[in-house]
Write a structure and sequence with these properties.
The chain has four helices and 38 strands. By secondary structure, it is an alpha/beta fold. The protein has three domains: about 90 residues, Udp-n-acetylmuramoylalanyl-d-glutamate--2,6- Diaminopimelate Ligase, Chain: A, domain 1; about 200 residues, UDP N-Acetylglucosamine Acyltransferase, domain 1, CATH 2.160.10.10; about 35 residues. One of its GO terms (molecular function) is UDP-3-O-[(3R)-3-hydroxyacyl]-glucosamine N-acyltransferase activity.
Length: about 350
């Protein structure tokens, strides 16, 4: 258990402390469940009414909510960002590996920096470079000539194929595969002929990738994930996709090959993005969207039918199937109206 004083919290968050600097906390908790020894935060003003009843040792708030606090308060610019920083400081998640396990299989020519850890039964093939403080979890596979940057952590059973490049300060969750073959085939009179995928995957710095996600290697050029990208669980990113700086992608999303996604985009969960298109910077796509064409202007985009009762949905579906018929009838009515106006 990690213990942090409120004075240290102020330094971590850059906030202004109002209260006992020597008081300590050991964990973050929601406002309605926080007790002595806990730190909580108020990010939504509508919950400010609960501040007088809060039992936390300290509450992180904006300046406007300070007067409502009855105990220690830490005034910050953004309580949610402050919560993230404090949660990191109090994080007790264990390392994926400690030192180098005797059962790890490491090729003789692997280049390792200082303080590298490799878990049980991991396989590190010839030509691999592991920078300082890299952590490879149990059962991982790192293919020939791959490179992993400083402070990057891989949880158990991650597979990094040959020649893949992973930057520094990345976090890759369990069972993810990076660098597998893209879906490339030619059809010769009904017979599928595999096209070798000759590119690789280049992942930037400070990238986080969830569990059970697959990122395919490029067919000729590389698949590229730029710095500061966050990718959720169970996603498919096809060959030659390029994802721009600071983009966030929620779980279950599928991106087809050779698509370029710009900087600071937000892609909602279970979205499907067509191949060979471009999405400009600053686009938000809500969940379960189907993106069939390029998006050239920033903004929020949606598709699909929101949840309805089954009865309402059946009516909607029936009307959708009759759209063509209804359109023809509408045009016929418009034509009659025009003829009457001309006569």
């Amino acid at each position: 258990m990690t213990t942090i004083s409120l004075a240290d919290l102020a330094n971590i968050t850059g906030g202004e402390l109002h209260g006992d600097a020597e008081a300590t906390v050991t964990m973050v908790a929601p406002m309605d469940k926080a007790q002595e020894g806990h730190v909580t935060f108020l990010s939504n003003p509508k919950y400010a009414k609960h501040l007088p009843e809060c039992k936390a040792t300290v509450v992180m708030v904006k300046q406007a909510q300070l007067e409502a606090c009855v105990g220690n308060a830490l005034v910050v610019d953004d309580p949610y960002v402050a919560f993230a920083k404090v949660a990191q400081a109090l994080d007790t998640t264990p390392s994926p590996a400690e030192q180098i396990a005797p059962s790890a299989v490491v090729a003789a020519d692997v280049k390792m920096g200082a303080n590298v850890s490799i878990g049980a039964n991991a396989v590190i093939e010839s030509g691999v470079e592991l920078a300082d403080n890299v952590v490879i979890g149990a059962g991982c596979f790192i293919g020939k000539n791959a490179s992993i940057g400083a402070n990057t952590k891989l949880w158990a059973n991650v597979s990094i194929y040959h020649e893949v490049v992973i930057g520094s300060d990345c976090l890759i969750q369990a069972n993810t595969v990076i660098g597998s073959d893209g879906f490339g085939y030619a059809n010769d009179k009904g017979e599928w002929i595999k096209i070798p995928q000759l590119g690789t995957v280049r992942v930037g710095n400070r990238v986080e990738i969830g569990s059970c996600t697959t990122i395919d290697r490029g067919a000729l050029d590389d698949t590229v994930i730029e710095d500061n990208v966050i990718i959720d669980n169970q996603m498919q990113i096809a060959h030659n996709v390029h994802i721009g700086y600071g983009t966030a992608m929620a779980g279950g999303t599928i991106v087809a090959g050779s698509t370029k996604i710009g900087k600071y985009c937000i892609i909602g969960g279970a979205s499907v993005i067509n191949g060979h298109i471009e999405i400009t910077d600053g686009v938000t796509i809500t969940g379960m969207a189907m993106v069939m064409r390029s998006i050239e202007e920033k903004g929020m985009y949606s598709s699909g039918i929101p949840l309805q009762t089954n009865k309402e949905w059946r009516k909607t579906a029936t009307r959708v199937h009759r759209i063509d018929e209804m359109n023809k009838r509408l045009k016929a009515v418009e034509k009659l109206m025009e003829q009457k106006e001309e006569s």
